[in-house]
Design goal:
The complex is a heterodimer of chains A (about 270) and B (about 70). Chain A is an alpha/beta fold and about 270 residues long. Chain A has ten helices and ten strands. Chain A has an eight-stranded mixed beta sheet with strand order 5-4-3-6-7-8-9-10, sandwiched between helices. In chain B, strand 3 and strand 4 form a beta hairpin. Classes of the chains: A alpha/beta (about 270), B mainly beta (about 70). Chains A and B meet through helix 5, strand 7, strand 8, helix 8 and helix 9 of A and strand 4 of B.
């Protein structure tokens, strides 16, 4: 992420100022002084044992090396509705360095019951644009690009460098497309789906074809009848982010399992597929 | 032989969460589905003893079946 010259430049500043902990203000100032990105300054800090204060409460759960790995990671979120809004929020706060957000839709009134990014003021606006603004409110070091597009119509360049994809879609047809696409790219897919009080999450390792197995030719799930209440997407999204971060950190066992949860009875089922 | 049936989410409605049935030898999963009134196409995940299985799977004493409906929302 940093050239030797950039490291020397930052090293001199950190030494001169005796920086032991990095505040937002200091990060911004050093970024201005050096012309380097906020992300680069944070990355350098972590590499040298200095914790950016905004990540202080991540440490303990993530090591400094882990936090640095997250900051260097690039992921894609496909779908920025119920699941995607929360996934974006948590990835930004976790400090995942580069996020590509994809959604062709605009906010509607029916989104207000559950979608974190949906507000009265936002109605009619594109979800992908709002996602970029929200990310900037939380963590300006994170580089966010957004595509107002269906996943099927994304330009090839959008996928460049993406090492993990979050399936936050709301329809089975596009999910199957995404499984095929990530298989061809050789990139793991963090799947999440919800319906009523129920949901499922899991990692689709390239070539495992778990979604094809589960959905087959099916067009609809139980959400068509049960709707999507406020709490289910938040739970599913948090499970997805936990799985995804574990995957990025390389600490996740590579097995073909799904987790099915039932919030009505507070049950959690591990399924081997 | 005794077979345990575990239903999840919407499959429990009007049925049960868990039940043990006494069934004749040679019973297949599809026979159980017919008696439950659940069509194979309504099922996303069908497990016998926690492992992926097909409706024509022949059951043996002590097996347990788990059935999950599809969820696709986001």
């Amino acid at each position: 992420m940093l050239s030797r010259g950039e490291k020397n430049l930052l090293g001199n500043i950190f030494r001169r100022e005796g920086i032991k902990e990095l505040s937002l203000e200091t990060t911004e100032r050093i970024s201005r002084e050096t012309g380097l990105s906020l992300r680069a300054v944070e990355y350098f800090a972590l590499e040298n044992g200095v914790i950016p204060r905004k990540y202080a409460r991540n440490i303990g759960s993530f090591t400094l090396a882990g936090q640095k790995k997250l900051l260097a990671s690039k992921v894609m979120i496909v779908g920025l509705g119920g699941l995607g809004g929360y996934v974006l929020e948590e990835l930004c706060r976790a400090g995942v360095g580069e996020i590509v957000g994809v959604d062709g839709d605009a906010f509607e009134e029916t989104n207000l019951n559950r979608q974190l990014l949906a507000t009265v003021k936002n109605l009619g606006q594109k979800k992908a644009n709002k996602a970029r603004k929200r990310a900037a409110e939380i963590n300006q070091a994170v580089v966010v690009s957004s595509f107002v597009s269906k996943v099927e119509n994304l330009p090839e360049t959008a996928w460049q460098g993406v090492e993990l994809v979050f399936d936050c879609l709301d329809n089975i047809e596009s999910r199957l497309y995404l499984e095929e696409k990530t298989k061809n790219l050789g990139v793991p897919l963090v799947h999440g789906a919800i319906g009523g009080w129920y949901g499922q999450v899991g990692i689709v390792w390239p070539g495992s074809n778990l979604l094809t197995k589960i959905y087959q030719e099916r067009k609809k799930g139980i959400e068509q009848v049960l709707g999507n209440p406020p709490f289910t997407p938040a739970v599913a999204a948090s499970l997805m982010v936990a799985l995804g971060i574990n995957c990025l950190l390389g600490t996740l066992e590579k097995e073909n399992v799904f987790y099915f949860f039932d919030l009505k009875n507070l049950e959690f089922e591990k399924i081997n597929l | 032989m005794k077979i345990e049936i575990r239903l999840f989410a919407t499959f429990r409605e009007g049925r049960f969460k868990k039940d043990v049935w006494e069934l004749p030898e040679g019973t297949k999963v599809i026979d159980v589905l017919n008696r439950l009134g659940i069509k194979p196409e309504e099922i996303a995940i069908l497990l016998v003893n926690g492992l992926d299985a097909e409706p024509d799977h022949v059951l043996k004493d002590g097996d347990y079946i788990s059935l999950f409906p599809p969820v696709g929302g986001g």
